[in-house]
Amino acid sequence: MRIAIDAMGGDAAPDINIQGAIEAAKEWGDVHIILVGDEKRLAPALNGAPSNLSIQHASEVVLPDDEPVRAVRRKKDASMVVAGRLVKEGAADAMISAGNTGALMATGLLVVGRMEGIERPALAPMIPTMDGKGTLALDLGANMDASPQHLMQYAIMGSIYRQKVHGLERPRVGLLNVGTEEMKGNELTKAAFPLLSEAPIHFVGNVESRDVLQGNCDVLVCDGFVGNILLKTMEGTAGTIFSVLKQEFTSSLLSKLAAAVLKPGLSRFKKKLDYKEHGGAPLLGLNGLVLKSHGSSDAKAIKNAVRQAREALKNDLVVSISSEISRK
């Protein structure tokens, strides 16, 4: 299986992408990794690298502040666009990028192409949970608005993803809402509830945001506007908690001693909330596998994104979603 990595995308590109790719290539010999980017910058770092790693030259870069659609249409030789084209043309089976999120969505739609039967692809990152299993949440930002039909498609795609990539036999699918009762919510969630009840999924009903971190569902469905607010609120809250803890545990000699005792437990807690453990968020509903890594990903996150893509490819994720959607 061939996985293209947008080597020039991300806050610390291309160094962390190269390092993560090398680590992944060493770990999985059945994967051929294609680093897409400026060959002059990439080649020197690959001396002595595994043979299952190669370079595809791309002369341009999509910048963080580029307007997404314009960048994808005008920068034909940008590393992100070239990686998408490799997937479209069958030269790669999947692509990973830590670059401009909007541009990656545009690349998915304009270059890779939308899956037949899917009206809108969905961005589906993992939200960490206290049981360590995580919740796949979609859509968390690809589309600000959604219809009840879109939410049903998100639910089906998310359920298949957790089956194929994470090995869950019967993923529990929840609908994000302001209450657990069936008739709670706005017009969108009220109309979506019966559709999800009849879909070929294990629908467990409405889920409140306060319960998400407890792992009360395996797939969380919502529109992109609400989902993106949920995600950023959680990220901000987690960051604030660790910042306050650091201040408190360094405020006096006694607190420093207490911190030394509690450090192993705090490290485990922080690991549970660390996006790097999951690697990337799939953009589900495309004609190929596209993964979005966090902009501040390190080498570990890139390696885990490769692992994630590898599992999805081994289990025919895209074909499985397409087959299920075509039956609807």
Automatic annotation (TrEMBL):
GO molecular function, one term: phosphate:acyl-[acyl carrier protein] acyltransferase activity
Matching InterPro entries: FA_synthesis, Phospholipid_synth_PlsX-like
Short name of one Pfam family: FA_synthesis
Endpoints of the signal sequence: none
Superkingdom classification of source: Bacteria
Catalytic activity: a fatty acyl-[ACP] + phosphate = an acyl phosphate + holo-[ACP]
Role: Catalyzes the reversible formation of acyl-phosphate (acyl-PO(4)) from acyl-[acyl-carrier-protein] (acyl-ACP). This enzyme utilizes acyl-ACP as fatty acyl donor, but not acyl-CoA.
Compartments where located: Cytoplasm
Chain's gene name: plsX
UniProt enzyme class: transferase
Pathway(s) it belongs to: Lipid metabolism; phospholipid metabolism
NCBIfam families: plsX (TIGR00182)
Record-given protein name: Phosphate acyltransferase
Family matches, as SUPFAM superfamilies: Isocitrate/Isopropylmalate dehydrogenase-like
Lineage: Bacteria, Bacillati, Bacillota, Bacilli, Bacillales
Keywords on record: Acyltransferase, Cytoplasm, Lipid biosynthesis, Lipid metabolism, Phospholipid biosynthesis, Phospholipid metabolism, Transferase
EC number: 2.3.1.274
